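Hi L., both proteins are below.
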Amino acid sequence: MDEPTLSKYMACGCGVAHGRRLFSAGLLAAGATLAGLARAQQPREGVDVGDTSKFAQLVSAEQIEQAAAQQYRQMLQQAAQQRALAPDSNPQLIRLRFIAQRLIPFTYAWNPRARQWKWEVNLIGSKQINAFCMPGGKIAFFYGILELLQLNDDEVAMIMGHEMSHALREHARERMGKQTLTQLGIGLGAAILGLGDTGRMAANLGGQLLTLKYSRDDETEADLVGLELAARAGYDPHAGTTLWQKMEEASRGAPPQFLSTHPSSPTRLHTIELNLPKVLPLYERAPKPARRFGPPAAPASAATAGARG
């Protein structure tokens, strides 16, 4: 084969090889795109509670979180002054913080801001059956909820996940947004009628963070998101039903404070049971906690008697 022919043959061969490479690369790119589209179209595994409320956008998340941090700090200072703030060495506080550290990584998918939150968990020495999580990840448990209800770790995880979910779904911010809108309407009406000005609207909203009562829809969202958080962290979601059965038992007579802001009902239990199949596969695949803790020693009287006292 002479040199021109050989050169022509080589050029043709390189062109064919180059074309094959381009074709293969195109197939790989197309395959990756199709795979990405398939993943995007797959339904999300776990519970479905829809988007967060648009009313939350009416109030600054930063301001709410700053107000929450200030209120939380004041509460801890008061508890410390009354010698009711558990030290870091308290076994039940160690327990709460261990469970929280397992749940926190799964909060990020529900609210990107949670990555920047300075999460805190503290234990207050009080007989109250109560717990909460303020905006920005400020968590507090009262000793009574652990002692009087004799909660196991799975049940503690359900409460903690539930409370975290109120913060993640920005329920406090949503309610304040609705209140701000109402105040705005009243203030504008008053200004038009010459009855006042609008400069004092939406003031001191942060002071309400410890007394907010959530709607039934908020409570359902928190139940379901909390159920998923706990399941992903390796805590048995069946505890969602045993927890509320204990709450129902404790509510006979004078309802504990927890139920004043977290009303229980057969519908609530039914909703949790309906959603168990959605989270059980997550729990079954999840690494289980390396440590298990027990509740505090039971009080001399029964838990329900203590709740009524």
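That was the first. Here is the second:
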Amino acid sequence: MSDVHPLKSLVLELALAVGMIACLIGAMFIHTGSMPPLVVVESASMVHDPSGEVGSIDAGDLILVHDQPASTVVTFAEATNVNHPAYGYGQHGMEGDVIIYDKNGEGGTPIIHRAILRVVAAQTVTPDRTGGDPCPSGTYDAQKMDVDGQRGSCILSWSVPGTSVTNVENVTVVFDGVQAGFYDCKRPAHAGVEPHLVVWEWQPPHEGILTLGDNNKCSVDQGGSATNGSAGVHSPSGVVGPIRDAWILGVAGGEIPWLGTVKLMVGGPASYGTGDVPSSSFLALGTVLAAVVFAPVASETVFRRLLAGAPELKHPPSSLTAHEES
């Protein structure tokens, strides 16, 4: 009979469990460089297959968040350009990186969408820092560092890396497979609406990345000013602008499917809920939980049967007696 006090045994087991969880989180932090190292996908905006698909991002999945320089983010435009070094690169079912960002840098629930293109300043001039209108022409970017060493610069023209768009006042990129890589909107063409993505005469409010959910039928996060008919993603200050480097929380890495569904189920009234979780995810989650519960019992039963048939247990060795000589 064990002489270990039950309370002490319970405390030791709890400490072991906490230690194992801490080791797991620590390992993921070392791997990703971000904390928390995981995000739960809440909506169906990145779904490729409504019935669920491992490899693309479904509601209820856990996604590793990699902390890497924003300059290393590969856009869809770059990954579909045969002359670009990142040609052919893709993550989660399509070309380009998927990023996690704060809406207009204002916090709240982060968005996880694909980076489509990046707009960068081609020509700039120093703004009038004494008058009421800092930029009589062009676009005033309050965060961009100017040549005078101060924040705030007038952007006169734009370029889009990975495309032929350079030094233009308004950005137009047609993702038809000719001017840029083909981006299928998964919608029928009608009344002047193309079946592919078109960014039309967009004058960005500042530098950054245009983003889009894979399942959003070309309704870009930056709204109708970038793509006709786009609803856009909204924050307290309005429609999300091009995603600044400082707003990027990380780049989507590996996927742990289904397990995030538990958080959506117990998230309370403020939770997004499980309405967008594929039915196959519930089945897979139940299978995983059942395996976790019953695997130790099953393995113990198997080991007991194996040990019961071991010759050593059936025929224990005879005890040896030492004799002393007188």
